[in-house]
Amino acid sequence: MEKQEQQKVSRLVFVLxxxxxxxxxxxxxxxxxxxxxxxxxxxxxxxxxxxxSNHPEFTFIPISDNLPKxxxxxxxxxxxxxxxxxxxxxxxxxxxxxxxxxxxxxDRISCIVYDSTMCFSQSVADHLKLxxxxxxxxxAATMLAFAVFPGLHEQGYISFLESMSLDRVSDLxxxxxxxxxxxxxxxxxxxxxxxxxxxxxxxxxxxxLIVNTxxxxxxxxxxxxxxxFSASAFTIGPFHKLVPTISSSLLKEDTNCIxxxxxxxxKSVIYVSFGSIASIDEKELLxxxxxxxxxxxxxxxxxxxxxxxxxxxxxxGFWSHCGWNSTLESICEGVPMLCKPFFWDQNLNxxxxxxxxxxxxxxxxxxxxxxxxxxxxxxxxxxxxxxRKKAIHLKEKVELPLKEGGSCYNSLNDLAKKILSx
Length: 422
Ligand SMILES: O=c1ccn([C@@H]2O[C@H](COP(=O)(O)OP(=O)(O)O[C@H]3O[C@H](CO)[C@@H](O)[C@H](O)[C@H]3O)[C@@H](O)[C@H]2O)c(=O)[nH]1
Fold this sequence. Notes:
This protein is an alpha/beta fold and 422 residues long. It has helices at 20-35, 69-74, 77-87, 89-101, 120-127, 141-154, 157-163, 172-183, 192-205, 219-229, 256-262, 282-293, 324-333, 346-356, 368-379, 382-399, 407-421; strands at 10-15, 39-45, 59-63, 108-115, 132-136, 208-211, 233-235, 269-273, 299-302, 315-320, 337-339, 360-362. The longest helix has 18 residues, at 382-399.
């Protein structure tokens, strides 16, 4: 997409949640909209601040989050998200009020674009009489779960679901049930229900919804989301395909492995990464190490995230936790996946990969022998070769909507028009 050198017409205020898997797509989206002629302010909690030096074209403003160090170091993610939603409402309101007071008439704030998990931003937008745009960095299907979750819980279906063993299925309802069942245990203890209801409420109130997805990947879910939330969804993903590669990694990147990868045979390497949040215990770490050491294939295991590896021709398989960014990146590079989800949307993403798009297989457990067998199925057996063919076909299909006249291309233009109409 060409960068337009025209005078900026409207300012978009982005509100970030400070996790790598969310910062990346939000900064990608900001870059996409900047290229459309909007000016950008990024507001972010102080905790885990993004690296502003990679984006000199944006204005970055930290706000106070009042997160106790003990909460951050305990790694209680739901606790952190809930606390951010409570603690940041006042600081965000004050920050935007100050911006409005100092506003240049040629550079007016047009709307607040917020990560859906920072759902209090919609209340701030309502209070300040600004339109709010909600951005979902996970698949649209997760929002269906949000819509039905409270009702199922009230009616006692959750414990019933928990006890169910569902066979592999490909219809959406079953995918949702699987995802619900997998998320079950955290519901009551972590206030997840409350947070999900608040996110669903903000989606109903927002002026537009942006989803980092592609229509054809989950058309059924998108149609239902629009119905259930009376929202118009702009599907302009995969965001990372629309921007030049700019690192927004919170960690220093190590690219030494690229020269090693360049020496490996095509499609011979299994790449292993569990994203930026999920962690494995010592036993799982050892089993993973044994499984990889015995799999008789070269492997690259990133014990922390942040590399441009998937696009390397040597990579023939991706063992992933199925974070949505990793899933989209894998699809876009035509790499079949070995899936071992941990939490949140990752179970549902795995169902899409394994049962709907058929470009990956599930790793049942962290056990050396099981890992070795699964890698062989993916990298050596006919089954894996068939998956690679399907993955390459899917990669080609995903590229089409991005081209002029394609659904993503049109959706982005419609979104820009909508913002200008605010
Ligand atoms: O050193 C690294 C390694 C990876 N990445 C990137 O980090 C992102 C990781 O994102 P994702 O695969 O989505 O994993 P998480 O970081 O775990 O993402 C969280 O956020 C996602 C989007 O909402 C959810 O789908 C996940 O379940 C949730 O854990 C990807 O773009 C990677 O390319 C880096 O920037 N630096």
